[in-house]
Design a protein that fits this description.
binds zinc ion, 3-stranded antiparallel beta sheet, 12 strands, 441 residues
Length: 441
């Protein structure tokens, strides 16, 4: 089966070359061919590339202009965040890298309702709250008491009994975080309750073991304390402003499709004109091509470029969002943040240029190969730009002749590798030999 289809492919290729040879021979017989000349060199479409790069860069500049609203508001937003951070320090803290919300600071009065409806209040000997971002097995917050030791070696988990069942059943766990011994932890715990029967047992964990079990039991990831600090007005405002720019990125991506298609058509037209000159110089007459695959190649190119621009935009905005929210947490200066944002757009701009260069070179090469195939040109001469920017790996290929198929085919073609400016110079020897044969017959 394979052999048969390969033979079929060879026959089809031969017929392309034979068709070209027959066309050229006929033109010669009618005296319509011009004398053979030196074949002009294949060129990389630099003009289309720089024009396309300029258009992609303009998209990036459009996003940058839209982010200006955020940059202008930065001094105010950062001042607001500073204010919030001050407020929050009283109610939130961090132990062992765990974000903790303190509902009842030490010394405050906690009003509570028991399972049996009893209401009372307790003066808190220790700060009491819950682990932010974690849910216990029952879906409830994981309650925690904070003791005097900042980085305790052991964590004590007290298993509390339910008052509603007369202390006969398990209710929930209380984490004693910040005591150096089980006795201290138990004493601190019992001081908070009016009945010792709340205490239903205790398990001690080393701190690392506790953290591991916590993650396993709750399925949560350890969240950095930074994360929750962002859910404040400034963080929300930032998201609103950046979401507007994200809409622009989406519409820019749509615009890219048209821009890319035009660039693709330009590449195709330039390549067509170049190939016409080359074929006319080599064979004495230009040979029409059906361009069967060109449309599909340009469509594919446009879609790929849309995806690349979209991801460039989204990545840039993600970076900026992280940058700005990080600035709220760390209290950076607006000028410094603005400068960093400008730097992100410089990077995005460079990236847009790289996309243009890479994509145009690749498309040009694909179009060239498709048309060479249609003409039955089975071999090409590899031409590098022959300057000091040619990558080391491609230098040895310069000037060599390679077949497009079969034995001796290179592992990759010019333009395939990222930002390659190498091109395929058509080799007409086989077709010329066929033409001579036809004319001699
Ligand atoms: Zn190259």
């Amino acid at each position: 089966m394979l052999g048969a289809s390969h033979a079929g492919a060879v026959a089809a290729r031969m017929s392309n070359a034979q068709r070209t040879a027959a066309y050229v021979a006929a033109q010669r017989r009618f005296g319509l061919a011009s004398p053979r000349r030196r074949v002009p060199r294949s060129r990389h479409p630099f003009l289309v590339e720089s024009d396309y790069a300029a258009k992609l860069v303009a998209l990036v500049h459009g996003w940058r202009d839209r982010v200006a609203t955020l940059v202008n508001e930065l001094p105010e937003l950062l001042a607001g965040a500073r204010q919030h951070r001050g407020d929050e320090l009283e109610t939130r803290t961090e132990r062992l890298g765990l974000p903790i919300v303190i509902e009842n600071p030490a010394g405050s009065v906690r009003h509570w309702t028991d399972g049996d409806g009893t209401q009372d209040e307790t003066v808190m000997g220790w700060s009491y709250g819950y682990l932010e971002g974690f849910r216990g097995a029952d879906g409830e917050d994981v309650d925690v008491y904070l003791g005097p030791v900042e980085s305790p070696e052991w964590i004590f988990v007290i298993h509390q009994q339910s008052k509603a069942t007369g202390f006969t059943t398990y209710d929930e766990d209380k984490i004693m975080l910040g005591w150096s011994s089980a006795t201290d932890a138990l004493e601190a715990y019992l001081a908070q309750y009016d009945d010792p029967r709340f205490f239903g047992g205790m398990t001690a964990y080393t701190a690392p073991d506790f953290l591991a079990r916590l993650v396993r039991a709750t399925g949560a990831k350890l969240t950095r304390a930074d994360a929750w600090r962002l859910d404040i007005g400034e963080g929300r405002r930032t998201r609103v402003l950046l979401d507007r720019v994200r809409e622009d990125v989406a519409s820019a991506a749509r615009a890219t499709e048209q821009v890319a298609k035009r660039a693709g058509e330009q590449v195709s037209n330039i390549q067509r004109a170049e190939l016409a000159k080359q074929t006319k110089a080599a064979l004495g007459v230009d040979v029409p091509v059906a361009d069967r695959n060109i449309h599909a190649l340009i469509e594919h190119f446009a879609h790929e470029n849309v995806a690349l621009i979209k991801s460039l935009g989204n990545r840039t905005l993600d970076d900026i969002e992280k940058l700005v929210t990080g600035a709220y947490v760390r209290g950076l200066r607006a000028e410094d943040v603005a400068q960093e944002i400008a730097r992100r757009f410089d990077i995005a701009e460079r990236h847009a240029r790289l996309i243009a260069r890479d994509q145009i070179g690749r498309l040009n090469s694909q179009i060239t190969r498709a048309r060479h195939d249609e003409l039955g040109i089975g071999k090409f001469r590899w031409l590098t730009m022959d300057d000091n920017r040619v990558r080391q790996r491609h230098r040895p290929f310069h000037g060599n002749v390679y077949p497009y198929r079969g034995e001796g085919t290179p592992e990759f073609f010019p333009g395939d590798e990222i930002m390659c400016r190498c091109v395929e110079q058509p080799v007409y020897d086989d077709i010329l030999a066929m033409v001579d044969e036809l004319l001699a017959a």
